[in-house]
Amino acid sequence: MSDADFRDRLRAVDDPALDTDIVSAGLVTDITVDDGTAAVELALGAPHAPDEAAIAERVREVADDAGIDVELSANVPLFDAAESSVLPGVKNVIAVASGKGGVGKSTVAVNLAAGLADRGANVGLFDADVYGPNVPQMLGADTDPDVTTVDGEDRIEPPTAHELKLMSVGLLIDDDDPVVWRGPVAQNTLTDLFDDVSWGSLDYLVVDLPPGTGDVQLTVLQNLPVTGTVVVTTPQSVAVGDTRRGVQMFGEYQTNVLGVVENMSGFVCPSCGDTHDIFGEDGGRTLADAVDVPYLGSLPLDPAIRAGADDGEPIVSGDGDTAVAFQDLAATVADKVGVLRRHHQQQQRDSASD
Ligand SMILES: Nc1ncnc2c1ncn2[C@@H]1O[C@H](COP(=O)(O)OP(=O)(O)OP(=O)(O)O)[C@@H](O)[C@H]1O
């Protein structure tokens, strides 16, 4: 079978999100059929995302039907050339943000990162919440990072906790030190940390931003190649109002918003079994609709989440409905990252053929 014949057969593989097949979308970037084996390179951006795993599986089925073996490889369609020069080994940077404090942003960041790692991805977690770096505690991590010297430059080796490479100013300061850095110091500290950590090769780097829309958040958006942002809100209307401002800020900095997740939705009462909407109903969905970004789902108000955080055990890695809600979030976020990357590839392809 010729390369062109096999490429034609791959038109039977639909992209679940792009409303077309993978060949028409420009996702088959290289194909060589030789001696009963097809080497196929696909423009896929989100390792271990359900949709992209399904695409790869369909390609294997088509090869099987054609009676040939297939070797698949993936290359990430980059948004721009600059993306590969900052954090070159990191495929995707996902920022987790909230318009106001205390809505569960760090909880979402930790469980999103652990959920992606549980799916098999290589994941790093960067706690950029310089004013309240509580991520290490949520993962039970208190190992000081090692510093190695490479070509005369100090490199910080991030410790590993729950299969995640972790970095936080919380690992670099004493527990009793109040973090009282003013804006410029906080920004410089962060910028230095970005540059000095050796993340190695990662599928996803999850960044826990400080709450709100201040200078530190802007520093991250301006200095890191953020693939997209997950915005956390509670159903309460004031949180929704603050979040709307956050979403607007990302728009101004041309940062993609992957979607809004609603945390602390209905409380399932352990004694009566009823669900109580303590913070109101449907705030997250209303917000997502109002600012025209995807709704990523809701996470229940469950005391086990706080207990897991206190014990350094992310709830996503356990069993039960709440764990499944976080597992679903990780899968949905990975799929949204994949859609952004593949959609970009499709646009490149369309503009090249104009
Ligand atoms: N869905 C939930 N159910 C129960 N407890 C939760 C839930 N989400 C978060 N919490 C608890 O609420 C507290 C605040 O959560 P977290 O630190 O994640 O919020 P945050 O938005 O990151 O806060 P900050 O503004 O301080 O950065 C923690 O004790 C956490 O365990």
From TrEMBL:
One of its GO terms (molecular function) is metal ion binding. PROSITE patterns: MRP. It comes from the Archaea. InterPro entries: FSCA_dom_sf (IPR034904), MIP18-like (IPR002744), Mrp-like_CS (IPR000808), Mrp/NBP35_ATP-bd (IPR019591), NUBPL-like (IPR044304), P-loop_NTPase (IPR027417), YlxH/NBP35 (IPR033756). The keyword DNA repair does not apply. Gene3D superfamilies: Fe-S cluster assembly (FSCA), P-loop containing nucleotide triphosphate hydrolases. Keywords: ATP-binding, Hydrolase, Iron, Iron-sulfur, Metal-binding, Nucleotide-binding. The keyword Hydrolase applies. Residues 7-63 form the MIP18 family-like domain. ATP binds at residues 99-106. One of its GO terms (biological process) is iron-sulfur cluster assembly. Binds and transfers iron-sulfur (Fe-S) clusters to target apoproteins. Can hydrolyze ATP. Homodimer. Belongs to the Mrp/NBP35 ATP-binding proteins family. This is Iron-sulfur cluster carrier protein.
